[in-house]
Every structure is written in structure tokens, then in C-alpha cells.
Amino acid sequence: MEQLTKLVERVVQEQILSSAVLSQLRRKPEEGYTKVLVKPVRLRGQIQIQFEYHYANKVTHDNVPLTEAAVKMMSLFETTFKQGLLRTTEGDYQVLISKKFKVTIRKQAAVVRKVDVSHNRKKQYVLNEGVPVPFLVELGIMGKEGNVIAAKYDKFRQINRFLEMVADVLPHLPRNRTVRIIDFGCGKSYLTFALYHFLHVESKLPVHIVGLDLKRDVIERCEALARRLGYEGLSFLMGDIAQYEGTDEVDMVVTLHACDTATDAALNKAVRWGARVILSVPCCQHELNRQVEQSVLEPLLRHGILKERFSALATDGLRAKLLDCIGYRTQLLEFIDMEHTPKNILIRAVRTEESDGQESKTDPQMWREYETFRQFLKADPYLEHALEDLLAVRGCQRTM
């Protein structure tokens, strides 16, 4: 940890730290927060470092003097978090800490050029307004001068929220070879182009991204735009999620708004490819809606709209638990604000180190929790059957 300690002390003391994000819990803290944002602020004429703690339903702040900030940040790394992103004026530092406290630090080109210490600073996006981004201009989200078109501001926010989630998993992607990515159901491909821009143009990673969709006209337009922009590592193909056989190994699988069990088909593909990262926003979860049956829940299930919403949430809960059982660390995150779309839950799964070994076994308690919930709902999930052979290898056998 010595290397990380020196880095943290230096960026704080030299006042070149613009912001930091500490994430990926080592263990759940008693206080219950899951992420901490760090940034310098000017309070009563003095520079302090603000620690912003994110809980499930609230956010709290703690402002500390510069002389104490480095110690506080290192304490969080040593006791609570395994991952960090430090943005400074000299470069961005990705920090990844293993279970045995082996620290990996990767430096990338700086995104920010000047530290903003105003207390109510304007939100900093991954892609900033006022800086022209070619694909955003081409897709009609930005004007040629970098101004965001008013009617497209929600889409601009959605793209940035997506890239924030991608930035969090950047340390889990390979650095010594081309990163292979499949985007199932890419549609108009706003996020596919954003992914290529962030990983290749901004982060300088060699990538090969394939966008897959069933609509020929959409694929043709996206392919033409990729060629016009000179995005050599980005291509688009017609194809179905369940039937796609274009590769044997993939590092990241993205699936946004795939309907019903098409999401499960994509998750199954991702797991079998050994994907290090999975990002999925499910849509239209009808499967469990047809299956769920539980008299205890009658006051809820008797109302169609409540049954639909409950079934969707339960489906994603079962999916996340299955991914955990198969060797991933899974989070359910808010993708964009509820007022913009009800399909606002993103499943983010990162393959754990343990799952790399063929002999890895699932914690029996984890599997019991999954089975208890499934049996309570009287559900028979598609994804469990799709992964049945892999689950069996890990010691997960259905009891009834």
C-alpha cells in the first residue's frame, strides 16, 4: 500500500486532486454506505477535502482539513474499498486492490485541467458540455460548438451516467491486448458509440466492439457512421442474441432493454464467454409475471400494475443472485432518473478472481438464499435452466 499512500498524499498536498471515487466494498461497513466521493472545496476561505458518503437512501458529508485528508482516504482504502478513481490535473489514476492488498495503479490521460474548489460546483460529466464530441454532433445531441441540444439533454445525461458506470469497471478490463466487447440489441447505438469513444479515444485502450441488432436499416446507418468517424474498432452486424456465434471469448457484454428472456439469453452468453464485465438494463420482464404465485402476497399480486412491477424487481433480484452464484460480484444500480424511463435498473456484474478457477465452488448459503426466494415465488427462471450445467459444476443443485 506504500505506493498508493505516496500517491494520495502527493495529490492532496500539491492540491492537484479534482475528485475521487472510492467503490467496490471490501466488506460492508457498519454505517452502511457503499460509495464515497471525494473532492476539494473552499469553505470560509480555506481549502478542505469533502468526503461524500452514499447510502441506500441518503448522502452525508464530512469536510476535513488538507492535513487529515490523505490519512482518511487511505483508511477507507485499507478497511472498506477495493477500487478507486483519482482524477487529477496531471492524469487519472485507476486503483485496484486485491484481497491480499496487492495494489495496482494505472495512469491515464487527464480529463480535467483545472481543480474547481467551489462548494456548489457544476456537475462534472465524463463528456463535458462545451467540448465538441464528434459522435454526439453526428447523432444530433451536440451542436458543432459543443453545446448540448436542449431537447437531447436527457440523452446526454443518460450517456454520461452510463460512462460513469463503465469507468468504475475499467480496472477489470485487460490492458495488454485488445478489449473485446459485444453490445446486444444496440439499436441507434448512442451508448455503443459512447463506449468506443470513452475506451478508445479517451482512455487509449485498443478495443474491438460489435453492435448487434435485428433491424437492418439501423445497422446500416450505424455502420456508415462508424466508418465516417474513422472508428476502426467498431462494427455493426445484424443478428439475434441467442443465436450469435461470432466469437468464443468476450471481455464485456452490454445488453440494454432486451425484452423479457432475451436479457437472460444475453446473460447466459456472457457467462459462457467468460466475460469479465456485464452491463445489462432489462426490459419487459413477463416471465415471472406469468409464474409468480404466493397467497401471502395476494394484496399486492391482485393488482396488475403492482404485480408487474414486483415481478420485474423480483426477476432482476433472481438474475443478480444467479450471477453471484456463478462467480460474479453483482450490483443493481439506478441507470437514469425515474422520470425519464421506468426501465432504470442496470445490472452490473464483475467476474471475481475466484471464478477464474474451474474448481471454484459457490458458497452454499448463497445458493440456499436463491432457492428459498425462488421457491417462495413458485418461479422457474429461464436463466437458471440456461446455466444449469455451470451451476452444477459449482455445487448448485436444485432441490425442488
UniProtKB/TrEMBL annotation:
A Pfam family this chain is assigned to: Methyltransf_32
Superkingdom assignment: Bacteria
Keyword Cell membrane attached: no
MF terms in GO: methyltransferase activity
GO BP annotations, alphabetical order: methylation
Keyword tags: Methyltransferase, Transferase
Matches recorded under InterPro entries: Methyltranfer_dom, SAM-dependent_MTases_sf
Record keyword Transferase present: yes
Methyltransferase domain mapped to chain residues: 154-291
Name this polypeptide is given: SAM-dependent methyltransferase
Protein species of origin: Paenibacillus alvei (Bacillus alvei)
